[in-house]
Design a protein that fits this description.
The complex is a heterodimer of chains A (450) and B (323). By secondary structure, chain A is of the alpha/beta class. Chain A has 20 helices and 11 strands. Chain A has 2 domains: 209 residues, D-Maltodextrin-Binding Protein, domain 2 (3-Layer(aba) Sandwich), CATH 3.40.190; 189 residues, D-Maltodextrin-Binding Protein, domain 2, CATH 3.40.190. Chain B is mainly α and 323 residues long. Chain B folds into 2 domains: 69 residues; 239 residues, MetI-like (MetI-like fold, Orthogonal Bundle), CATH 1.10.3720. Chain B is built from 14 helices and no strands. The two termini of chain B are 49 Å apart. The chains are: A alpha/beta (450), B mainly alpha (323). At the A-B interface, helix 1, helix 4, helix 5, helix 13 and helix 19 of A face helix 1 and helix 13 of B.
């Protein structure tokens, strides 16, 4: 009895593995908006019987969406791709790589971490043709190449990563109905945004919902604020110098940017629940204040991915919308945009891994996700018609309308700063510590790891 | 399904493998030295201990040695940097905060758990629904630290004014007329609230061990004391507690070791923010956020140095008890 049961369990588990290849979301060749030619071209690559594992941070909805993209790669090449992902990627990928059992491809949100891995010789550089391809086909291609070019173990720089799926961070979310009812209009300058905030208070409302809580990563939403304000108070060269720590963290310019964030977050009248709610409120809960009745707040600064956390049935563009987090009119620094992206790197080289990286260059890999939800791409060769809604196109416009594009600074800083001291500093600042003291603390940690 | 299959196979291999090893190795030894049984009996214990010794060496001694080496190396573990990591540690504000917090945990948690466990053990033996109470108090032991932390995080949850408070503590607090509080962001109080979680878990452990010890006290002594006119409280404090002093110390030290390693609760509930950092979480931070094996190993060595004396003392104590 027992052995036969075991046998059955083994057989079932084997079958379950084989039956994983899922249905294709959009039948190839049917919808003319897609570049099916790039899918057909992929069939020339035969990877029958090859396996590829991919690790990343996407879980839940995003995981299902990414798997729907993978399905096309599997169907065309015959390779078997397993994606496992979720929270804690930063730790997991380090453990797996150091332990000698890395995934084939890792999807890393922080270029800083990828640079670390490259320096330790744990990544396989991409062929030089990929860099040329990026310059040619990605909007602001050179900047994407630069962001993914790291020094290898011997110190020679090479392109190690490929950005796929980007986020725009400089957005302010709001509920159009609430703004209309109160007779407010969307501001087009930072001065206007602050005036609007004051107007809301004068009318008895609360302008902002700000929440820094994020479990182990508590504090990161504040880093986005500070980065955005850094770009709005200083030229981009200063931002670059700050991120590289050529300008110290406790430089007056940085302190001024932190204090500018404080003018929002440390002002009891400005934030729903008062200042003490800022540090403790989870960012996923914070945004819900927009939707209460009467609204707990009118405005929320957050990246393009936040609709994933809206309650079900919320239609972006109708029930909720966003505008560009504006620049100071008086400072003449143009319209800077802060963004981020996920970086695909090869942690264990194989024909399947290389083929998958090439697959990411094909328009179809982008269009499948675009046609569903929550995907932005700088790929110029895709058909924008495939975007499932106007929202994504509008976000794409923000991206394209940027005079300056800068990558999320905390993701570029070393892990101990960008995912450590900076977070802690922001939590402390929100709790009442002085900006200068916080900045000096962060700089001290930075000095200690040099 | 795949995991279930793999787990089943692992369990089977583990169980049968172990039994098989002892059975077969014992048999082989018998075969080899049928003549000289006496000498075999000297070898036998070593034979039985071999798997444990090998595994301990591989998974305990070897890592300790490597950690010690790494603590004198740089972030990548490539270059020798002397005592630089230890010097850095001395000057790091977060390390000092962690040490202070760990000391605080060290004083509060074992004391509170042991005292509460002792009271529970003393009281539950005297009431009718004592067994039910015991089961309830023991229940948290069955919950993982992570699970407990998540539960208590919800208990301490705070929602901005105007929204409905879903946290139990805030519900109680507002029912008594207070303003809803952000419990986890004010230093000292937040550490205490985190300690409550561990106390909640460890009290059951203390209670079970101490109950057994209390039951081991000879009835004659207690009766003699009662005849001499001692009140129940006097009997408990003057007769019973001195009798189980050894066990109390063992419970105390076992909890102390647990406290020194506390990590999951802090990571899950505050991640060491708002001044709640502890050593184990600091180590994790430097290992996996700072990508710095040198500093992480240095913190690990500090934790080990703090745990070792307690462990040695504990083992000695246990050995004496056994004798």
């Amino acid at each position: 009895m027992k052995p036969s049961f075991l046998m059955r369990a083994v057989v079932i588990s084997l079958l379950a593995g084989a039956a994983q290849a899922e249905e294709l979301k959009f039948a190839p060749g049917v919808d003319a908006r897609f570049h099916w030619d790039s899918y057909e071209a992929l069939k020339a690559t035969d990877l029958q019987g090859q396996r590829l594992t991919i690790d990343g941070t996407w879980a839940g909805v995003d995981k299902a969406l990414f798997e729907s993209v993978i399905a096309y790669f599997e169907a065309a090449t015959g390779a078997e791709v397993e994606y496992y992902g979720g929270d804690g990627l930063e730790q997991r990928v380090l453990i797996d790589v150091e332990a000698g059992s890395p995934p084939g491809i890792a999807i890393i949100p922080q270029p800083g971490l990828a640079a670390d891995l490259a320096k330790r010789g744990k990544l396989t550089p991409l062929p030089p043709t990929t860099a040329d391809w990026l310059r040619e086909n990605y909007a602001a291609g050179q900047s994407w190449v630069d962001l993914a070019t790291f020094e290898g173990p011997d110190g020679t720089p090479a392109l190690y990563g490929f950005f796929y799926k980007v986020e725009v961070k400089s957005l302010v979310w709001y509920v159009p109905e609430n703004l209309e009812d109160a007779g407010y209009s969307v501001p087009d300058s930072m001065e206007g945004l602050k005036a609007l905030s004051d107007q809301i208070i004068a009318d008895g409302g609360t302008p902002w919902c700000i929440g820094l809580g994020s479990g182990e990563a508590t504090g990161w939403p504040a880093t986005d604020w500070v980065e955005d304000l850094m770009l709005r108070n200083n030229p981009p060269q200063d931002y670059d110098a700050w991120v590289a720590n050529e300008m110290p963290f406790d430089d007056p310019k940085v302190i001024a940017a932190i204090e500018d964030f404080g003018s929002f977050a440390r002002n009891d009248a400005y934030v729903a629940g008062g200042v003490e709610a800022v540090g403790a409120t989870d960012f996923r809960d914070s945004v819900k204040g927009l939707f209460t009745s009467p609204p707990a707040c009118y405005l929320h600064h957050q990246a393009s991915f936040i609709p994933s956390f809206f309650s079900e049935g919320t239609v972006v563009g109708q029930d909720a919308d966003f505008f560009y987090f504006p620049a100071y009119e008086g400072k003449a620094l143009g319209n800077p945009v802060l963004g981020s992206g996920t970086l695909f790197v090869i942690t264990e080289d194989s024909p399947a891994a290389k083929a998958f990286m090439r697959f990411l260059q094909s328009p179809i890999a982008h269009e499948i996700w675009m046609a569903q939800s929550g995907f932005l791409t700088p790929h110029k060769g895709v058909n924008p018609e495939t975007y499932s809604d106007m929202t994504a196109r509008k976000m794409g416009d923000v991206l394209l309308g940027a005079d300056t594009f800068r990558f999320d600074g905390s993701d570029l800083m070393p892990g101990a700063i960008g995912a450590g001291a900076f977070w802690t500093g922001m939590v402390d600042y929100a709790a009442g510590k002085e900006a200068a003291a916080v900045a000096a603390d962060i700089q001290r940690t930075w000095d200690s790891i040099k | 399904m795949e995991q279930v299959g793999a787990t089943a196979v692992t369990v089977l291999i583990g169980v049968f493998g172990c039994t098989g090893y002892y059975f077969l190795s014992n048999r082989m030894l018998d075969r080899i030295c049928r003549a000289d049984v006496l000498r075999c009996n000297h070898i036998r214990p070593w034979l039985f201990m071999l798997p444990a010794l090998v595994l301990m060496g591989l998974y305990l001694l070897y890592p300790v040695f490597v950690t010690l080496c790494l603590s004198f190396m740089d972030a990548e573990g490539d270059h020798f940097v002397g005592a630089a990591n230890y010097l850095w540690l001395m000057q790091d504000a977060k390390f000092r905060e962690s040490m202070l917090n760990n000391l605080m945990w060290l004083v509060v948690v074992p004391a509170a758990s042991t005292v509460l466990g002792l009271i529970a053990a003393g009281v539950t033996d005297r009431i009718r629904w004592g067994n039910f109470a015991k089961a309830m108090i023991f229940m948290p032991m069955a919950i993982s630290f992570i699970g407990a932390a998540v539960i208590w995080k919800l208990v301490y949850d705070y929602r901005p004014d105007g929204e409905e408070q879903i946290g139990l503590l805030n519900a109680v607090w507002t029912a008594m007329g207070g303003q809803a509080q952000v419990w986890l962001d004010s230093p000292i109080l937040n550490s205490v609230l985190l300690m409550v979680v561990l106390i909640w878990i460890q009290t059951g452990f203390a209670m079970v061990i101490l109950t057994a010890a209390l039951r081991g006290i000879s009835k004659d002594i207690v009766e003699a004391a009662v005849l001499d006119g001692a009140s129940p409280v006097q009997v408990f404090l003057r007769i019973k507690i001195p009798q189980i002093g050894g066990t109390i110390l063992v419970v105390w030290t076992v909890i102390t070791v647990t406290v020194l390693k506390v990590f999951d609760i802090v990571l899950t509930m505050t991640n060491g923010q708002w001044g709640t950092q502890v050593l184990a979480n600091l180590m994790f931070d430097w290992m996996f956020r700072g990508n710095d094996t040198g500093r992480a190993s240095t913190v690990a060595i500090v934790i080990m140095l703090m745990v070792t004396p307690v462990m040695i003392w504990n083992i000695r104590n246990t050995l004496r008890e056994v004798r």
